[in-house]
Amino acid sequence: MPLPGARAAAQQAVKAASSSQAPSGSTAEVDEDAVLRTRFLSLTSSSRGVPIMDRLAKRFFTFATAVERSDEDAAKELYTQLVKDCAAVAFQLEQMEAKAEVLEKESDATGDVRSTLARRAEATQAEIESLKSELSRARRKRRRLEEYEGVRRLIVKEPPRSHTSQELSKLAEEVKTLQDEHESLLRAKEIRRKQFSLLLTTIENLTTDIGHDDHIMETNLDDNCS
After folding, report:
1. Structural domain boundaries enclosing 46
2. Residue 13 reports pLDDT greater than 50
């Protein structure tokens, strides 16, 4: 039974393919492989060691040749096989699409995981900064405690307050005694100064009187001699 639609498609494909075919069969196979590689490069899954797109293309060219030769029985059989191969390719494409969806979901999940890890990293960094600040405060507190401990040890080495108070009382009494002695010495010094001043005045007066008496005596002697 003739297949008008398939026949027209096959004839058009054969004309397009035959325009680039060489006279020899080996060259035609090479050109056919080149067409397959350029047009169906993304579908390279194989069945029984033969790439499915290569098998589909070869079957299509065989089907087109059978249609061109008006071999209806061979064309029907090849058509049935071609439909099966197309269904296999469609199934493979569906599998690839499903895999792509799975990969996309995994990529989204990976992005979510990365976002979660980034948030956790930020939270961890913030916690580290907080712990650094807390550690710095703890170090300052420890340094102050060590300073306080040093001062406490110095205080412990000093005598008790009662003993210090007694010593201060004794020192205060000694200072008061020294102040009293100092004031007494100042008064005695003032008295001695006044006495010495009086003595000097007396000596000066005596010297004046003696000089006056000597002058009188000399005057009397002169009078007696004359």
Report:
1. 4-97
2. no
